Design the sequence.
């Protein structure tokens, strides 16, 4: 049985979220264990461009500089148009979780592919719905995951950045079954 831990913080602005990412980086947190998801301010109203050429990612939109900087720090990036949530931008392992949910048709009643990706990592459905709603209203969701020690360290660092909300989750994976801990 493998134990997984996740710390999830929400921020009201991209500047606050970016500050938290930089604080984690400067504190030595493993950036491969960090994800962020949010919307650009005007993604509903304007066509935006996104491309990935090798290791370079380009994005044109209101928050292009923010997303370009984040994608330079985190591993994996994507632009998704998710029914019920709208257009989102994501970076980090969350991208793979969303893709796995889409490829495996993992749909959890009442949540989107984003929600299914979060749920597959042990985040409870009621919390997933809260994060989806936050993203719809322009908030940014930051997820740090790892061992209990890594999660504790991330929580302490993130707490200093004054997030809008901060929650921790611990779960165990036994084969394919998730067990709340």
Sequence:
């Amino acid at each position: 049985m493998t134990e997984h831990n996740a710390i999830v913080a929400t921020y009201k602005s991209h500047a606050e979220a970016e500050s938290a990412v930089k604080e984690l980086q400067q504190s030595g947190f493993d950036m491969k264990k960090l994800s962020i998801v949010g919307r650009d301010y005007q993604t509903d109203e304007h066509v935006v461009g996104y491309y990935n050429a090798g290791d370079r990612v380009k994005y044109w939109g209101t928050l292009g500089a923010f997303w370009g900087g984040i994608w330079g720090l985190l591993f994996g990036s994507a632009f998704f148009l998710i029914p019920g949530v709208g257009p989102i931008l994501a970076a980090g392992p969350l991208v793979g979780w969303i893709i796995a949910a889409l490829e495996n048709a993992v749909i959890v009643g009442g949540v989107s592919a984003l929600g299914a990706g979060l749920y597959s990592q042990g985040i409870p459905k009621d919390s997933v719905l809260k994060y989806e709603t936050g993203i719809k209203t322009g908030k940014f969701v930051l997820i740090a995951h790892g061992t209990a020690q890594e999660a504790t360290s991330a929580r302490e660092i993130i707490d200093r950045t004054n997030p809008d909300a901060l929650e921790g989750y611990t779960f165990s994976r036994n084969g394919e079954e998730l067990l709340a801990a």
